[in-house]
Design brief:
Elements: H1 9-41, H2 45-73, H3 75-95, H4 99-113, H5 117-127, H6 131-163, H7 172-182, H8 199-222, H9 227-246, H10 263-293, H11 298-304, H12 306-326, H13 329-349, H14 356-382, H15 390-417, H16 424-451, H17 455-478
Helix pairs in contact: 1-2, 1-5, 1-6, 1-7, 1-10, 2-3, 2-4, 2-8, 2-15, 3-4, 3-5, 3-7, 5-15, 6-11, 6-12, 6-14, 8-9, 8-15, 10-14, 10-15, 10-16, 12-14, 13-14, 13-16, 14-15, 15-16
């Protein structure tokens, strides 16, 4: 075996983590730069929402397609294409002359991003076959999110202060190119059975996510009763019903609804949406508050967010170890409690000039909760699933994260759009409502984590794994050519 092709699990993990780093950095750096983008491109709050959601919507829409495509044609190949597209689109973002060009470049960036994280997670799942090693690897993987949260606000503040908001996209290029060079050490892998494309399911997913998000973002300006908003809402509802009817009837669906027979998998999906909705709202409202109301520059706003980022960095590996030794329940319950406490603290004590100590405590709690929640989401999503569909299962979890973040930005941004950023009193009133919504996201993590991590939930996961394995074996017996032997990702 050539030296470059020799399996090196922890090197493969490091390479995959580089892709997660640039995608995660992009989120935290961008939020610090939002006020500067608004000033330079003369856009509204809804324009800022679209700057975030144009990326997350396209990303969420394509994650499952990218995951199944990688399973079919090769995970390393798709991973490499994603690195090239993401790095090139990041450069285009930095050159955008106006909001429309920036949104177009962000959408292209999302096309590349959709080929990175779920595919990398699938590569990790197939590289680390031992359940304990995989849980530790996922803990390291989740810790990279904490690193990006720690470095992102400060790095973003430095770049915006010294070179302008366009510089925040430059950092992706050298990291992406380095990861691209190192992919020679990543072994190629693909699914045991070729999955056919599902264009109808893909279209329905796009209509569902785009229609729902557009209705939420544009409703403050157009009104909920406007024909456009009502039409988008109806289209989203129709797409959801269409998915529920159409997908179970396909041999190779884009969204395999059989996964949701497992209560832990379904719970991980709900928790991912809730936790990342909280994160999206937290970063959006927090960044605008620190710079518009408190009058901080981007660098000092980034420093204010450092306690949250540091706690996320410290607790993510701890969460991975807890999942490996005790299962996902403990970190989920701790995460839900910390996220709820953080948001309630800010909702109760929110004012034009929140005491610095209260802000620091709230940021510490939120970082603790967010750091704890990622490892159990990822581990539960791939546990018990056939290894042949690891990419699809990981993509569902990643899609849930992006959907949650899109909704968090859309909902909190819709609240902020009704309060002029030049009026601190109006901003404070709207932000207090936003914090109660974020608190609700924390409660959802706590309750769902409790319900889907006990003995009953584990039994549903075992039954789902057995049925999936039996159905996959039956499909193999039907014969569509020579197929590889399948396994499952151990719980």
């Amino acid at each position: 075996m050539p030296d470059a092709a020799r399996p090196r699990p922890w090197l493969v993990l490091a390479i995959c983590c580089m892709s997660l780093l640039i995608v995660s950095l992009d989120v935290t750096i961008l939020n610090v730069a939002l006020p500067a983008i608004r000033s330079d491109l003369h856009t509204s709050v809804s324009g800022l929402q679209w700057t975030v959601d144009a990326y997350t919507l396209v990303l969420a829409s394509l994650l499952m397609l990218s995951g199944s495509t990688a399973d079919r044609i090769g995970r390393r190949r798709v991973f490499r294409i994603g690195l090239v597209v993401f790095s090139g689109a990041s450069l285009l973002c930095s050159l955008a002359p106006g909001l429309g060009w920036l949104l177009a470049a962000r959408m292209l960036q999302a096309v590349g991003g959709s080929m990175l994280n779920p595919v990398a997670m699938s590569i990790i799942s197939n590289t680390f076959t031992d359940s304990r090693q995989r849980a530790r690897a996922i803990g390291v993987w989740s810790g990279v999110v904490g690193i990006s949260m720690a470095a992102g606000p400060i790095l973003g503040g430095v770049l915006v202060e010294s070179a302008g908001w366009r510089a925040i996209f430059w950092i992706n290029v050298p990291i992406g190119l380095a990861a691209l060079f190192l992919t020679r050490y990543v072994p190629e892998s693909r699914a045991a059975r070729t999955r056919r494309a599902d264009p109808v399911g893909q279209l329905l997913v796009v209509v569902l996510l785009a229609g729902l998000t557009y209705a939420i973002i544009e409703s403050p300006e157009r009104g909920w009763t406007s024909p456009v908003v009502l039409g988008c809402t109806a289209a989203a509802l129709g797409a959801l019903l269409g998915l529920l009817w159409y997908e179970p009837r396909r041999t190779d669906p884009l969204i395999d609804l059989r996964f949701f027979r497992s209560a832990p998998f379904s719970g991980a999906t709900v928790i991912a949406v809730a936790a990342f909705a909280g994160l999206g709202g937290f970063l959006f409202v927090g960044s605008l508050y620190l710079q518009d109301v408190r009058g901080l520059d981007p660098l000092h706003a980034g420093l204010f967010m450092l306690p949250m980022a540091v706690m996320s960095l410290l607790t993510a590996p701890l969460s991975g170890r807890m999942v490996a030794t005790r299962g996902p329940r403990t970190p989920l319950l701790l995460a839900g409690t910390a996220l709820t406490a953080s948001a309630v603290l800010q909702a109760v004590g929110y004012a034009e000039h929140v005491p610095t100590g209260l802000l620091v405590v709230a940021f510490l709690l939120f970082g603790t909760g967010f750091g704890l929640v990622n490892a159990p989401i990822t581990n539960t999503a791939v546990s018990g699933m056939p290894r042949a569909q690891a990419g699809v299962a990981a993509a569902v979890a990643s899609t849930s994260r992006q959907v949650g973040q899109s909704l968090g930005v859309a909902v909190t941004g819709a609240l902020m759009a009704g309060a002029a950023h030049t009026d601190p009193a109006a901003f404070t009133a709207a932000a207090r409502t936003a914090w109660w919504i974020i608190a609700g996201c924390g409660v959802a993590v706590l309750v769902t984590g409790t319900l889907t991590s006990g003995r009953w939930a584990r039994a549903t996961a075992e039954r789902a794994a057995e049925r999936l394995a039996a159905e996959e074996a039956a499909e193999d017996a039907g014969g569509n050519g020579i197929r590889e032997t399948k396994g499952t990702v151990d719980a």
